[in-house]
Amino acid sequence: MKISVLTLFPEMFDSLKHSILKRAIENKALQIEFYNIRDYSKDPHKKCDDYSFGGGEGMVMMPQPVYDALEAADPGHKARRVYLSPKGHRLNQSLAKDLSRLSHLVLLCGHYEGLDQRIIDHYIDQEISIGDYVLTGGELAAQVVIDCIARLLPGVLGNEESAMFESFENNMLEYPHYTRPREFMGHSVPEVLLSGNHQKIKKWREAQSRLLTKKLRPDLLKE
Ligand code: ADE
Known about the structure:
By secondary structure, this protein is α/β, with parallel strands linked by helices. It has 2 domains: 2-150, SPOUT methyltransferase, trefoil knot domain (Alpha/beta knot); 167-222, tRNA(m1g37)methyltransferase, domain 2 (Trp Operon Repressor, Chain A, Orthogonal Bundle). It is built from 8 helices and 9 strands. The strands form 3 sheets. It has a 5-stranded parallel beta sheet with strand order 2-1-6-5-7. Strand 5 (80-90), helix 3 (93-100) and strand 6 (104-109) form a beta-alpha-beta unit. The two termini are 30 Å apart. The mean pLDDT is 95. Adenine (ADE) is lined by residues 84-86, 129-131, 133-135, 138, 141. Residues 84-86, 129-131, 133-135, 138, 141 line the site of adenine.
């Protein structure tokens, strides 16, 4: 899968150089390319923002550099183009799965007070938010999107990791995990996990998932 990131701050994406994402890029399961929006500005000073028509505080990202960066990243509009914004569709596991099936995804990161609405209306397919709070820009949100997509791509997680039951499968939270020692500071591992009875362990884990979801995220059960 290819992800093209359009940003004024490509250097904010250093988190991709580590761990599973690094491996995904090295294995070529994931290809990430960056387009610095400033490089596409036709302004002599490489300006990318301007005053808001109608007045008010804050600057707005100009359409021209963003449009040209979009055309460079995705000529002929073949990719899914996503703008990261608090107004967007809230990211969840099922949206991440949908995105992970694309061959080319474009992530546009905004800054200042926002982006000229004409870009969103005419050249963007989808707005995605990572939660109900406002970040200073879309870069951290894009990294969250990239991270949760990358681990869904074939060949990125090992068999053991990917076969694992995980939170949000079937709208349930994941059961708790324990490792050695059997007793830590007087706290024991649940007896059933030491029993070697796989049937019983499976049942216990399913029950724990149900209990945890009911207690911590009853909203998931309603979905
Ligand atoms: N940009 C600013 N806030 C954001 C959020 N919550 N999600 C995605 N992009 C954003």
